[in-house]
Amino acid sequence: MALSTPRLRTFEHMIRSEQERQRIASVDALRARGIDPYPASAFSVTHHSTSLKKTFEEDVQVTLAGRLMSRRIMGKASFAELQDHEGRIQIYLNRDELCPGEDKSMYNDVFKKFLDLGDFIGIEGNTFRTQVGEPSIKVTALTVLSKAIRPLPDLKTDDEGNVHGAFTDPELRYRQRYVDLVVNPNVKNTFIARSAMIRKIRDVFDARGWTEVDTPVLQSIPGGAAARPFVTHHNALNTSLYLRIANELYLKRLIVGGFEGVYEFSRNFRNEGMDRTHNPEFTVLELYVAYKDYHWMMETTENLFGELAQAVHGKMEIPLGEHKVNFAPPYARVTMRDAILEHAGVDINDLDEAGLRKACENQGIETDDSMGRGKLIDELFGTKCEHHYIQPTFITDYPSDMSPLTKAHRDKPGYTERFELLVNGTEVANAYSELNDPLEQRARFEDQLKLSERGDDEAMFIDHDFLRALEYGMPPTSGIGIGIDRLVMMMTNQTSIQEVLFFPQMRPESFDTAGGDADFSALGVPKHWEDHLVSAGFKSARDVLDTKPTQVHQRLNGYRKKNKLDIPALSLEEVSAWYANAENHTS
RNA sequence: GACCUGGUAGCUCAGCUGGUUAGAGCAUCUCACUUUUAAUGAGAGGGUCCUGGGUUCGAGUCCCAGCCGGGUCACCA
Q1: A130: which nucleotide lies closest, measuring CA to C1'?
Q2: Distance between the alpha carbon (CA) of A529 and the C1' atom of B14, Å
Q3: Residue A132 phi, psi (nearest 5)
Q4: In angstroms, rounded to a whole number, what is the distance separating the alpha carbons of residues A198 and A491?
Q5: Dist CA A374 CA A402 (whole Å)
Q6: I want to staple A125 with a disulfide (CB 3.0 to 4.6 A). Which of A2, A35, A139, A263 is the partner?
Q7: Looking at the C1' of nucleotide B32, which residue has the nearest alpha carbon?
Q8: DSSP-based three-state secondary structure for A18
Q9: For residue range A343-359, what is the model confidence (pLDDT) as tens digits?
Q10: What are A159-184's pLDDT values in tens digits?
Q11: ∠ at Cα A50 (A46, A53), nearest 5°?
Q12: In whole angstroms, what is the distance from residue A569 CA to residue A554 CA?
């Protein structure tokens, strides 16, 4: 329930399809018979569909609730399917068993006429098997729980498992995810897997004594990553705030404060392009553990991913597109230098910035003056190497100027203790031995500032409070960020991020609510005609006045006849009077 | 942001070089039918062909602009 209720608007004038009008008429018909189409009382169930079918025994009394999803009516008996959160089960309705007395209206009218596919019903009955052996429930009592006035996309699955009339349009599926979830059962499974993965991560981390924390989403300095932020404004402080692009710097502050293991499922926001691997808001799991280094973090990560694959699939090797990916640890560890040497034939150790720029150009990579050494290496790796790593692989030891928050490598000057985990050619995790030398961190931020002055609009901001925190001392720490959405994609064999987010970002939909504001009072249109004017295509008084009276007259009476409206026909005089009324009204 | 591609009934989709009243399957409505399962048989209704301009005797179809998707690329995770 929302805390504040927006101004109520009525949409009585909304244009309805024929099927919607029929369903609304059924709502009224139910009420006329004393049946509340939206009853208030709870309905308790004893069973759910799939689990009941799994342990099926005949002649058990059961109560279930769900949506009516298909109906096969054969005179005095019908088969139907009830869908609950587990799946579907067949129900059998026999007129004389549902209505043992004289009154057969529960079957003849309520079930056959006033119920529609998509309605929520509750049933009570006994289990049995049909002649063909289908586990079914013979219904002895039927309760209307909620009437649907919009028809669901109807789809049917035949014996071979082919789906007919599938609801496949991505736009409709993402905008109306509720419909997608009702009619496409696999969609639900993806999100159940997502939930299972997140639960598993919590279990594993909590068992190790790490603390789940919450840190600010609204930040005055968007730190911890290189990305363009969303900006918003706080009225009371009269200051700009940014939606976080990362939570890294806050989690490190908590390590400074004495926590030895903290993690957060961080919803991050980046004001950048959208495509099938990018949504403006996305979830990163960040974990920071004190007294650890990146070698330890690699082991922790491969063990976690193995457990996740096990939790979701019950095995380590899972299908992903045209490949099979094996999440069983240990994973290959390849240094960035070796990766580039292997796939681009260039030894980055031998090259300075100018040499790298030349190497990039030789490989057909466009460069510009704003790109420093780190950026050039990143380009080289991104275009030449990344896509080769299908099986989980740790790419280690990144050059220091592309890793401003990472500790310098213990024995390779110019490199840092950092790794990214690649799966299926895509980065899913990024981890460091965290830089805890406050003076070096300050120097690295200043280097970023120089990059920014060269025109790199992704260079990081300097967060002075974070530097102050480091100056109080941070223990050696290893941290990791895992892209949860991408991880879910990989674990559920999905190729687009929109498939693992319930409500991916879409351009706002515009609703034609002109009818909701229609006001024909100035014309003196009779109340019982107002809705029909809108349905007949007149969305405002202006629409009427812009049309000739004779035409309005004919269109409305035509509409009345077509829809068999139980109201008197309009005379031309009546309609002409509306124009005169409008004139008097304005003058 | 660039390029390619699409928008026709509640859903999935046909609709040719522009030409009578825009079609199909499922869904809906009416009738028949007591163990069906993509139930079946007979009949009926249902459309702002995304929006707005233009060309034309005539536009779902051609042209222009716009709106909303999808794909590829750029940027990024």
Answers
A1: B35
A2: 38
A3: -85, 0
A4: 12
A5: 5
A6: A139
A7: A75
A8: helix
A9: 888 898 888 888 888 88
A10: 666 666 677 778 788 888 888 898 88
A11: 85
A12: 10
- Cα A509 to Cα A340: distance, rounded to the nearest angstrom: 45
The radius of gyration of chain A from alpha carbons, rounded to an integer in Å, stands at: 32
Q: Which nucleotide is closest to A509, CA to C1'?
A: B68
> Gap from A536 CA to B56 C1', in Å?
30
**Distance in Å, residue A166 CA to nucleotide B59 C1':** 31
How high is the pLDDT of residue A139? 95
- Mapping DSSP onto H, E and C, the string for A120-166 reads EEEEEEEEEECCCCCEEEEEEEEEEEECCCCCCCCCEECCCCCEECC
Residue A74: nearest nucleotide (C-alpha to C1'): B33
Single out the residue of A279, A329, A289, A335 nearest to residue A306, CA to CA.
Answer: A329
The residue assigned the tokens 């939570």 is A247
What is the DSSP secondary-structure string of A250-270?
HHHHHHHTT-SEEEEEEEEE-
Q: Which nucleotides of B are covered by protein (CB under 7 A)?
A: 1, 9-13, 25-30, 32-40, 45-48, 67-77
Q: Considering all nucleic acid strands, name the nucleotide whose C1' atom is nearest to the C-alpha of residue A227.
A: B76
Tell me the CA–C1' distance in angstroms for A56 and B32.
35
A370 CA to B49 C1' in angstroms comes to 51
- Return the DSSP state at A561: H
Q: 3-class SS at A471?
A: helix
Coil vs helix vs strand at A424: coil
DSSP state string for A430-458? EEEEBP--HHHHHHHHHHHHHHHHHT-TT
Residue A423 burial (CB count, 10 A): 24
Residue A507 CA distance to nucleotide B65 C1' (Å): 20
Strands of A189-280 (E only): list them: 211-212, 218-219, 231-234, 239-243, 261-269
Q: Which nucleotide lies at the shortest CA–C1' distance from A116?
A: B28
Specify the pTM: 0.82
User: Which single residue has its CA nearest the C1' atom of nucleotide B46?
Assistant: A18
Which structure tokens are listed for A102? Answer: 């004289």
Residue A218 confidence (pLDDT) above 90: yes
Examine residue A330 and say whether the peptide bond preceding it is cis (omega within 30 degrees of 0): yes
Amino acid code (one letter) for A379: E
- Say if residue A259 is exposed, middle or buried (CB neighbours under 10 Å; 0-12, 13-18, 19+): middle
